[in-house]
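The following block was generated as part of the benchmark described in Methods. Ligand: pyridoxal-5'-phosphate.
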Amino acid sequence: MNFSYHERLDLIQERIQLAARRARRLPESITLIAVSKTQPPEAIAELARAGQIHFGENRVQEAKAKIPCLPGHLQWHLVGHLQKNKIRHALPLFGMIHSIDSVELGEAVDRVADEMGLTVRALIEVNVGEEGSKIGFSPDDLPALAERLFGLRRLEISGLMCVPPAVSEAEHARPFFRKLRLLRDDLEQRCRLALPDLSMGMSNDFEVAVEEGASHVRVGTALFGERVRPPGSQTEE
Ligand SMILES: *Cc1c(COP(=O)(O)O)cnc(C)c1O
């Protein structure tokens, strides 16, 4: 069956609402981010016409090429690793950086933001599965290292983000989402800060993430269909 973007968007929003209700949460407290990496501006514009406002990209170069072609009211989230030499390009494009994955990167973003006279809303990426291949803070190091990020004046850290290990069923991702929430609760208590945001859940498991407290779900394939990657490209920057 071939659904229009409008129909797919309605369906995802409805599933988010149902999951929120199961967890006795307000559906308005959850932001759907349409992850539009590899999608052409025409597809993004069509989803925007259907009412979608928040979009996610994982590569700065690609975002820089596409964003100027699209309506100015859209809000952009960087969900992939940020290379230090791209910070200056990234800051004016993105309203939120979900992927502060090291103290060094946080400090570099703070420095560039200071030079540019900007403040940056950002999340700390946690390697919840403790996978050697993945970037992000290890849960054990998080409390000590996060304090250094909270001290950076140009960085407004509002929460945590994770990409859990690939699992065969959505339900198997639940322990990782729960872990991110508990890490957040612990940090809030320790540092006496408000960290309202939890960016977690993708096409296959966003409902479970909502049940576990997600504030932002990042959905690509379920909205746009399968991604077609140009040959030779990488999945992350
Ligand atoms: C690609 C991507 C997504 C979306 O993944 P889907 O499975 O297509 O929904 C979400 N988060 C990040 C960090 C991504 O890179």
